[in-house]
Amino acid sequence: MDDRNGDDLTGRGEARSEIASPDSGSTVVPLRPEKPPKATEQLDPRLEELRRILAQSEPADGEYSDVEVIRNEDKFRRRFGPGFRWNRRDRIGLIELKKRYDLTDAEIKLFQHTGNLRRTPFGVMLTASPWIALWGSVQIAVFGILFLALLLAAWPNLFTTPTKAIKLTLALLVLLGFCVALHWLYVKPWLLRRRKELECGDHDA
After folding, report:
1. If we measure between CA atoms, which residue out of 122, 121, 105 comes closest to residue 113?
2. Of 50-59, 62-71, 73-82, 86-95, where does mean pLDDT reach its minimum?
3. Is 84 left (phi over 0), alpha (psi -120 to 50) or beta?
4. Which of 64, 91, 130, 178 gives 75 a disulfide partner, CB atoms 3.0 to 4.6 angstroms apart?
5. CA 23 to CA 11: how far, in whole Å?
């Protein structure tokens, strides 16, 4: 029995040596063949930039895309506001303006509500003027001086005559709100247009 078991073990050892021996001419097939490494794809930088732009241009949840608002006037008004009753040519011009200056929807609405979007046969233009911004700044300065005068007048009465101080405080709040409205109506559109034009100039350079 021992001799027979020894012969079997010897035979198995010789068989394994024949399989593993390179001179035997047999091929050993591994159970898990190695996968060749994947070659790294070299993408065109312009293609990567285009993919990034397309990814950023995807509309947010519940927002219509640029293509949809060009095709459908109702979707155009729902996205930008009921005051935008524009035809297809003007809708195309507005989207081109938006892409040219990299404007957001809120910035487009600001220009529209302040009357700084002009529709022409050649497209939509920004009409925010530095002279109007200067005129608005002058008015803000005048009302700012008046605000400071009322503030100085109301300060001594804050503790002595509260009733009079309340009236002056309400007047101060009205003046402050009026100055903020002047800034948004006259000054901010020009500042926004100037910043966008500078950004476009730096990008083109």
Report:
1. 105
2. 50-59
3. beta
4. 64
5. 18
